Amino acid sequence: LHDPSGETVGINLTFHSVPADTSDATKAAVERLGSQLALTSDVVFSPYSSTLTHVLAPKTANSIFTLASGASADDLFSLSSTDTKFRRYKYLIGLAAAASTYMHPLIELLRVSAQKQPLNITFVSAEHQSFPSAVCRGAAKQAELFGIPIVGNHLMNKTGENDFPALVKRLKAERSSSAVVVCSYCAEVPLLINATIAEQWLPGALVFTTCVNPGLPAEIEAVHPTPEPPPGQILSNYSWYLTGTSTWHEALIGDDYE
Predict the structure, then answer these.
(1) 85, 11, 51, 4: which is closest to 158 by C-alpha?
(2) Are strands 84-87 and 92-94 parallel, antiparallel or unpaired?
(3) pLDDT in tens, 11-24
(4) How far, in Å, CA of 102 to CA of 47, rounded?
(5) Is 29 helix (H, G, I), strand (E, B) or coil?
(6) Among candidate residues 94, 96, 131, 123, the one with its CA nearest the CA of residue 107
(7) Neighbours of 180 (CB within 10 A)
(8) pTM exceeding the 0.90 threshold for the entire prediction
(9) Exposure winner among 3, 16, 36, 52, fewest CB in 10 A?
(10) How far apart are CA 34 and CA 52, in angstroms?
């Protein structure tokens, strides 16, 4: 780095590790750390979590640059008063797209497809977490704008002990046959997919907000092994389709890679 006169200056980088969860203990640790960093740092990189950034930002983002490298929940950056939006924190800078826009390409795809046949959409959201809930709210608003019927809106509980077989039965009964959008993180994905396999039911599209975990297929295969494929063929209980800014990995297979 260079100072205004052009002289090279050094910087000190300090890394702090916190658990990859949003428990009360982790939030308390991030809050204490934020109070410390506000006194000792010039720039802070927030955790890869909108929920934890909500805890950090009040301590740092009104006094020093705080870069939200992974956090993208809309309400981190702006607040609404009647019809006016204003900046929530003076120095909080987001690097990712706003969470409310994550599913806009999917909704646009459904809008185009709806010109050929009637479609509907169902949302399953982890409402207690900032990022997933913002994704589902933004997608629902876009679906309403395009006139795509929303036939269901289900919430996951805070403990994570969700009854996914029962949820799949409800989705099946609702005739959620076009698209089911799941706004969550990786933990719920294999549980829900295994429930759909057990119920022998899938919608036209089962969409997850964010989960590009190379170990995901193995978690599903451990419960529902795929039969041995014929020679020269790939046989799977499921196909993976990655869109947007997802990182491809060879463990994620599907016809879209042909």
Answers:
(1) 51
(2) unpaired
(3) 777 888 888 777 88
(4) 19
(5) helix
(6) 123
(7) 27
(8) no
(9) 3
(10) 11
